[in-house]
Amino acid sequence: MSLIVQKYGGSSVADATSVKRVARRIVDTKKSGDEVVVVVSAMGDTTDELLDLANEVSPLPPGRELDMLLTAGERISMAVLAMAIHDLGAEARSYTGSQAGLITDSAHGAARIIDVSPGRISEALAEGAIPIVAGFQGVAQDSKDITTLGRGGSDTTAVALAAALNADVCEIYTDVDGVFSTDPRVVPAARRVPFITYEEMMELAAVGAKVLHLRCVEYARRFDLPIHVRSSFSSKEGTWVMSPEAITRAIEEGRAMEQPIISGVAADVNDAKVTVVGVPDKPGQASAIFRALADAGINIDMIVQNVSAAATGRTDVTFTCPEGSVQQAMEAINARREAIEFESLTVDEHIAKVSLIGAGMRSHPGVSADFFQALAETGINVEMISTSEIRISVVTRVDDSTKAVQALHSAFGLDADGEAVVYAGSGR
Amino acid sequence: MSLIVQKYGGSSVADATSVKRVARRIVDTKKSGDEVVVVVSAMGDTTDELLDLANEVSPLPPGRELDMLLTAGERISMAVLAMAIHDLGAEARSYTGSQAGLITDSAHGAARIIDVSPGRISEALAEGAIPIVAGFQGVAQDSKDITTLGRGGSDTTAVALAAALNADVCEIYTDVDGVFSTDPRVVPAARRVPFITYEEMMELAAVGAKVLHLRCVEYARRFDLPIHVRSSFSSKEGTWVMSPEAITRAIEEGRAMEQPIISGVAADVNDAKVTVVGVPDKPGQASAIFRALADAGINIDMIVQNVSAAATGRTDVTFTCPEGSVQQAMEAINARREAIEFESLTVDEHIAKVSLIGAGMRSHPGVSADFFQALAETGINVEMISTSEIRISVVTRVDDSTKAVQALHSAFGLDADGEAVVYAGSGR
């Protein structure tokens, strides 16, 4: 008997019909002999509708009240799902984040989980009931106020709860069949990736894949908890996100084929490029820029500093950040104009970040060469480069991103009709 | 400085515009120097919409989950109201029933308040914030599950909280100007009643007036807490519900005129008449009937037993109960057919209960005579009679109820254009 935590997203419980279908799946899992704990998001567009209502009464609602409002969404979906399960003859009990023991800090709208004390969930399981837990929400340790976890919060709830309950697997149900080698809308030959490591999945999440949120994968890696991403509309196997050791075991057991060098290609068009022009080329200037950005809470990604022009003793510093942070970034830098001594600021939002991810590139030195050759042959100009041990990312013109993804997907043998024995991995 | 608990019903916060209007009223009260605690119902039709959603997934949802679902309604309205107040520059904090310390038994859907521990509300007041509390809901003492208080629950929350906080008054805001001498749709000359005793208000609530729920008035009487029923759409004085002593003080202070003999007339068309035909006229038979009904949890109202027919030694027992309980009542009695030994059961749903209420009838013996004379002169046949110290009720044909109300309202000088110095009181 396994303990399975199943998480259903908003699209899986969009209306009464979907709720009943999900209820049937949950009851079937229970009947097959496993213990089940369910984490559920708000139904369909509920969260957006609640946000609209908030905006009707206040342009800038306080975070505490916004969290109180938004948590009504999961309250509705979890109660309705419990009713649907009850209607199939099984016992289900819904629990708010607070009742399920999701203790967070008090950063409203983006709270971090501090502790999970799922005493009531364990009791419900012991009594043979199916606990239904509200995703995305918790209770602040100090103020006892209701909090929300921010983007990808329900996935994080599911993984944190699975870890605290020592579950065997956390199943994340969504409206696609799993993680793909790249966005199937861009490359129709994209393949589903059967197995991927936490590290690769984190790199993918960081460069724009939307299937799993970075924070949830981090959490799963810390507790070595297998995640199974799959569709709530079919019973097909999806994508297993696991440790390299667990994947090796799966290969030994014949459940997986040999692991590929490259798992996927992703493009992110939501970043912008900011250039701080004419910064004196002396120690401390770059530090002043990035301290200003850090103090303003802005996540920056790639950084490039030009070789200084000998005549002027000045250089340009370029970085990328999410488009939504550009205004704030410019204000933060302008506010320290005297310390940084720059000449001007330029912004370019017409960029894309194209990334290749694969744990295998660690031991295969030719990957970079193949990567740049594929882009060069397609006539794509590379503006910035950044690499990690298992990822190569470049900034290109946004209009080139589709061509770049297609070229790389094909060059690394990821196309489904290709001959290469590689798997793949990228979000949609 | 007074402490005022203000309760706003669903029609007062039906949409963003109404919420803003209510927020303005709350902030004005606070600015005028009083402390304010707000209790709020779900917005407009939210509760009905949630019930519809529940019915889509389950014909008979478990009470625990129905309560979890319905409490999302007040969660939304209280958060939105807090935002609107915040937008006017005052600080508001919303609290669920559980957070506000509303401790109940675990009778889902109709929980009773066991205790109120409003520690967080007092803290918020001490910090200068306006607490916004979800009406209608609490938390079960034993199971820690979320409960709802049933019909009129938000009024009861407001009164219970006001009592626990030792507030000076509980203001119940609604969409009418207060309590009327009878339903203004039936008698256009109906008057607003400025003062009414708890007892009279309870009798009115019991016979079909819908402005205040019986339970909330009972609670207020127990703690001698004045209730002020008024419209959220105007700043007019409404109806004060208080003890006879408080009304006497108001008269002495010149705030009220002398109290009337009769305060109002009400008609309730939602009862049915059930007759148990041919019951042996021997000790214990009536008891067996009413024990069966009590065990089934059915509230019965009027009871009449015919004089027994000497030839058969059998009699008929007739009682009234809410139309919604008729089916259950018949099943309960049929299930004890052998013990009760009756011959048949008949049901009549075409009845109305017409009532006259007034604390003054205690000391005015002529009221009954005038009552029956007014009905007789209008040609209305009386089928059953029941009286309390301050109420006379009769059952008539449902088609006669409007005529009966008009005749009584006029006969006791309640018409607004009449000359009598009486006040009046009946719900709509």
Task: Detail the topology: elements first, then pairings.
The structure is a homodimer of 428-residue chains.
Chain A: E1 3-8, H1 16-31, E2 35-40, H2 46-57, H3 63-87, E3 92-95, E4 102-104, E5 113-116, H4 119-126, E6 130-134, E7 137-140, E8 146-148, H5 153-164, E9 169-174, E10 195-197, H6 198-206, H7 214-223, E11 227-231, E12 239-242, H8 244-252, E13 264-268, E14 271-280, H9 285-295, E15 303-305, E16 314-322, H10 326-334, H11 337-340, E17 344-348, E18 351-357, H12 367-377, E19 384-388, E20 391-397, H13 401-411
Parallel strand pairs in A: 1-2, 1-9, 2-6, 3-6, 4-7, 9-11, 10-12
Antiparallel strand pairs in A: 4-5, 7-8, 11-12, 13-18, 14-16, 14-17, 15-16, 18-20, 19-20
Helix pairs in contact in A: 1-3, 2-3, 5-7, 6-7, 12-13
